[in-house]
Amino acid sequence: MWLKPEEVLLKNALKLWLMERSNDYFVLQRRRGYREEGGGGLTGLLVGTLDSVLDSTAKVAPFRILHQTPDSQVYLSIACGANREEITKHWEWLEQNIMKTLSVFDSNEDITNFVQGKIRGLIAEEGKHSFAKEDDPEKFREALLKFEKCFGLPEQEKLVTYYSCSYWKGRVPCQGWLYLSTNFLSFYSFLLGSEIKLIISWDAVSKLEKTSNVILTESIHVCSQGENHYFSMFLHINQTYLLMEQLANYAIKRIFDKETFDNDPILDDPLQITKRGLENRAHSEQFNAFFRLPKEETLKEVHECFLWVPFSHFNAHGKMCISENYICFASQDGNLCSVIIPLREVLAIDKTNDSSKSVIISIKGKTAFRFSEVKEFEQLVAKLRLKCGAASTQYHDISTEVPISSESVDPSDDIEVQSLICQKECSKTVNTEALMTVFHPQDLETLNSKTLKEKMKEQSWNILFTECGRGVSMFRTKKTQDLVVRGIPETLRGELWMLFSGAVNDMAANPGYYAEVVEQSLGTCNLATEEIERDLRRSLPEHPAFQSDTGISALRRVLTAYAFRNPKIGYCQAMNILTSVLLLYAKEEEAFWLLVAVCERMLPDYFNRRIIGALVDQAVFEELIRDHLPQLTEHMTDMTFFSSVSLSWFLTLFISVLPIESAVNVVDCFFYDGIKAILQLGLAILDYNLDKLLACKDDAEAVTALNRFFDNVTNKDSPLPSSVQQGSNVSDEKSSHIRVDITDLIRESNEKYGNIRCEDIYSMRCRNRLYVIQTLEETTKQNVREISKWIQRDFYAEVLNSKLLLILLKLRVVSQDVKLSLHELDELYVIFKRELFFSYYWCLRAPVLKHHDPSLPYLEQYQIDCQQFRVLYHLLSPWAHSANRDSLALWTFRLLDENSDCLINFKEFSSAIDIMYNGSFTEKLKVLFKLHIPPAYTEVKYKDPSKGDELSKEELLYFSQLHVSKPAKEKEAESAKNSPEKGKEKVDIQAYLSQWQDELLKKEENIKDLPRMNQSQFIQFSKTLYNLFHGDPEEELLYQAIAVVTSLLLRMEEVGRKLHNPASSTKGLSGAVCASGGPSEGQTESHLEKDPSSLREEPQWSFAFEQILASLLNEPALVKFFEKPIDLKAKLENAKTSQLSSRTRK
């Protein structure tokens, strides 16, 4: 690699470097101790240690080239190399292209300037094709070279950054370098002859956390495949940890959770991932989550400043955050003050002429915001004016001292105007009023205590609107939160839900969108719509709104429209309950956008097939229980109890467990504080019932205690009619259980657990996401193991519960069909899955994992194509030493691909490996026989004869697809047959039973049913056998035996055909095969290759499998060869170590 010229004093370097070549202008040196016998002694060990620990050019490579200026002790380093071949190429290039030119210069200064300019030009040219960007510092280029040298990963592996740290091996810290790349965490250390090299793939990381103890003050703990690794002594540990967390989560999303993998242009191309890009992405995600902005927003600028708060008459210190469409402000204390200003609302942007460096932003509604002490405020004003198209306004009479008017404007007016088209187009179908106003209009004449309290709440909010403004740009303060905790008034609930959730921004940015989606989704019929129809009547069935067609139709439209908008989620149970409550207080279109906000931003990944988001938040909840309620953790032997009991809390925001009049107060807090409100309330509920839970003897008793508690939660201030309220009969004073008011419970949760920060929750979510997804994978695999044991004991015959039976059926396993041990199956499965992952690590056209269907049984979820199968065949097959191994891999793949989709799953793959290692002589021979007859066999013609029998990837994929194309309807029918639950509303248990019975009772294939092998196929079969015997200790004996068998078979066929047709003869081929009692391998193969053309004119002959089997059984050497045991364990270990190295740089 060419290096930016830097001065080197050769006098001090001679102790560390040895000169190998030199001329008048250049010197080639080798690092002392490199490639010397014994490592160069003590000096070599010390030099190697320095190379590993110190961050210098010396550590990068063992070879370097220096440019020497004549008559000077100063040298310039211009190139380095990881090996002799690389540095020799540089040296030869210098001799051929530079040396002759240098002789024309008169002065040494001109020579040096010319060499420096040429080397910089080479670096610039090299940078065009390098993953190291041109603006990267020189140290990064050096680190990149060492990363490539130490780990030898494929060229496409992108190094993101590197850090100096210590890796703890036992109780001993080893100083070295940690390299973070797109797919791997790598560590290298060399200390006094001891080398440590560690490579961990991100998708194998199940735990990533910052820890500390007596020995390690602060370290990063990485758990991968049951092994714990600790790294410490970082200069910036928080920055390092954040980057590791992002890379691990990126890999997890890409490999295991592609449903939530966003088509981000940066993440779609792993080569574009950079340290700065990942940091910016993390900041944008936190920015969007805090201010409830659309996911598409990207944080562009952050400015520290002061915001004038007029109603409090003080300047709040905080940060102004600017994205493409919003200007936001949050005080240093997040609860003190925050503001969101959409650029669509901005009328003018001005600056003051005084020393306050102020920026004044005027918006609709006669409101203005003054930001002071803004650095570079003039440039900021120019940028913002350009961004929003607002000019300096001379016609607005704005006082910078009182930047907010007392005249509040209802923001819903603007939204109403923007959605006029929507309402006109679908006024006949879409409700334009909240269901609560239709079914429970307020009676102004009848005022009771509850109604008066409701009016007092409304008055409190009106006062707040007067002070803080109303709408999306209102000031949000501690007073706002206090009012939310008390409960939002019924008349304002829909408006404030839209505001606090950010749904108001989505709706304003997409006028008419809902009407279009409703129209497009009307009449659609699919799995989602069928499930929606089934659940419509189960959504708040006791509420009058959903006992009428008005409410049911609105609910149907919203759910169907969302399923149409987001088919990846479609419809998930619990969405109907949540949407029902939204429709009570929000207009139909608003309810749709609220649902979008909940499903896509506030509760990410909750409503998909595996509810990963809910499981992640449950893991966060368990972590908070351990921190805040340790006595409960000590009492409960199994923390999974909290996960099982709280799942419905998270999925339905407590709506399914609390009475509706109390649940809506929880939803109020959720839209204001996000998931933090649900976590706090969950902790408060457990704390309130702590004594009862500690007294419980089992989980069932604890569940009963919690259910009894929920039944006694009331909302004494709810203005809802008693006929609608779901709580216990309020007048029942004989109840022995103490009633709890929801407002008091929420207030207590804020007082006790309000110190939980949103940033901490975000970090815990990221950390636990790794654990949850890896645990899901491992748990499913463990369940498969257990089910397999039950199946082997005929447990399924005793199962009466249909749901459990369905689980058993879906977890069909291969252990009942193969002789491989469970440990061998585990090892084989890891290799199988890693091969699939590796093939997508560096695939730029398809960065997201394909051929993975979580709806299938676990061992059938992952599928590989022919190219991936060939790699595994070379690593694992005992027949992989054959000269035509690529052809054998191709035919084996075609044999296993029974459904002709050009993919095979692990179940099919393991069955082939099992036969190769554990099959009997007859089973192995039958597989080889079937490989040489259709549909597995296809004649392979090589495009490039110079490569021998090696097939290119394109050739392999082409031949794997020959004669397998089927009509789409036929493929769908086969798919439905193979997976009865796929594409149907309900799983047909009878179909599963029938399919499983067919598999279990399937008779062994009768060898008489196998088709006969024709002439050309038999010739190829014979050549394959010769190739398999090559290199065996009994090679000559085996060759002679197969020659005898071939001769015998041909004579048998000749006799048979003479009986039917005396004129026919196979003398030519028979004589060639049996001459001299058995030919050599070369003679036989050459004759077999020549004979087919001459025999095509003669009548074709063929062999049955029984004939070949009987003939081979007569040769003990052949039987011994196929029946000798092969060590699969050693093969698996070798495959695991070779799997990655087979892809490394050559």
Notes on the structure:
This protein is an alpha+beta fold and 1146 residues long. The strands form 5 sheets. The protein has an 8-stranded antiparallel sheet with strand order 17-18-19-13-14-15-16-20. Strands 9-8-7-6-12-11-10 form a 7-stranded antiparallel sheet, sandwiched between helices. α32 packs across α40 and α34 (866-876) packs across α35 (885-896). This is TBC1 domain family member 8B. Residues 1061-1093 are annotated as: Disordered. It holds the Pfam family RabGAP-TBC. One of its GO terms (cellular component) is cytosol.
Number of helices: 47
Helix content: 40-55%
State the low-pLDDT regions, or none.
55-59, 129-135, 391-428, 728-734, 786-815, 964-977, 980-989, 1064-1097
How would you state the average pLDDT, rounded?
79
Q: How does the major sheet shape up? A: 8 strands, antiparallel
Shape: globular
Helix/sheet category: alpha+beta
Radius of gyration: 37 Å
Number of strands: 24
Largest beta sheet: what is the strand line-up? Answer: 17-18-19-13-14-15-16-20
How far is the first residue's CA from the last residue's CA? 16 Å
Measured by DSSP, the beta-strand proportion falls in 5-15%
